[in-house]
Amino acid sequence: MNLTSRIATYEFENPLMNASGVWCDDAEKLNEMVQSPSGSFVTKSATPNFREGNPSPRYFEVPLGTINSMGLPNLGFDFYLDYSIRFQNENPGQVNFLSIAGMTLEENLEMLHKINDSEFKGITELNLSCPNVPGKPQVGYDFERTKEVLTKTFEFFKKPIGVKLPPYFDIAHFDEMASILNQFPLQYVNCINSVGNGLYIDIDKEEVVLKPKDGFGGIGGAYVKPTALANVRAFYTRLNKSISVIGCGGVENGRDVFEHLLCGAQMVQVGSQLAKEGTGIFERLLKELKEVMNEKGYESIEDFRGKLKSI
Ligand code: RRO
Q1: pLDDT tens, 38-83?
Q2: Pocket of ligand 1 contains residue 132 by CB under 6 Å
Q3: Residue 82: count of CB within 10 angstroms of its CB
């Protein structure tokens, strides 16, 4: 069975990856991602310098998913760039995704310049949708600002790049964002980041479960799958064919992976369930995806990718 997937000029053995932020913040976890059978991996969104992030508790697991308000804890951009260059040099022909999330446009441009001037051959992911830094709204909900960030980026940036988007909930917003994204030579868009600023509460204690922001945090897992699939489908049907879609949201089993692919995703990322289960999940998901494909008589992803039917 052929699970080959492509983004830009790169080919991956299968479409599975971690979602940025999960199992990718330090060398130990990144090494586990490299060892796993996932098709690729993405690093934790980086800022120019080390960040402690928000106070704990800042992550909480519930049966239907997770809520987080991590606040961009990371080892600093240089660590993730160096790790990625070492990975590509030690694994010829393989590349990873390098995620950045500057606090300001200037910070993003500073990191993009460093990537442009480096030996990095992989794909950059510009995170426009972190919901958890107090006082910093998600850029992806500000259409003009998004256009400005992309305009400034493409004035000099020459390497493959995609954007991580927040979920949208209105057809007018799908239309407007897609028409902006179509003006730029992006390689992909990644739908979706967590559903921002949800609230999970402990009924016995009558209190919130996270310390930052009075308990408000990004929701992931089964709660968000229909929203994730809608965003993948909406952008797949609106974007230029040169812009791929990466699907992220609510993947717990092989059927969920199949659904993202059916909506048009090229790669499928795993966040909440990877955090709960560890990198052993990739072997299970590959087995389950092959079982679904087998039942349906499909031999390669291209047999069904994007071919969701309307009624
Ligand atoms: O670090 C975080 O709080 C975080 C980020 Br940058 C993001 O993009 N999405 C998320 O759910 N958490």
Answers
A1: 999 999 999 999 999 999 999 999 999 999 999 999 999 999 999 9
A2: yes
A3: 13
Cα of 192 vs centre of ligand 1, distance in Å, is 11
Catalytic: 130?
yes
The single-letter DSSP state of residue 223 is G
Would you say residue 213 lies in a domain?
no
Three-class DSSP category at 190: strand
Q: Report the alpha-carbon distance of residue 184 to residue 266 in Å, rounded.
A: 19
pLDDT tens digits, 198-245: 999 999 999 999 999 999 999 999 999 999 999 999 999 999 999 999
Instruction: Note whether residue 310 is domain-resident.
Output: no
309, part of any domain: no
* The one catalytic residue among 5, 40, 99, 129: 129
Q: At 281, which amino acid appears?
A: I
Which CATH number belongs to the domain containing residue 129 in this structure?
A: 3.20.20.70
Q: Which domain holds residue 108?
A: 5-53+72-196+221-303
Q: Among residues of the chain, what percentage have pLDDT more than 90?
A: 99
> Is residue 203 situated within a structural domain?
no
C-alpha atoms less than 13 angstroms from C-alpha of 245 in its C-beta half-sphere: 30
242 is catalytic: no
CA distance to 49, 61, 240, 309, per residue, from 188 (Å): 26, 30, 10, 23
pTM (2 d.p.): 0.98
Give residue 297 CA to ligand 1 midpoint distance, Å: 38
Task: Provide the Cα torsion 241, 251, 71, 112; round to 10°.
Answer: -30
How many domains is the chain built from?
A: 1
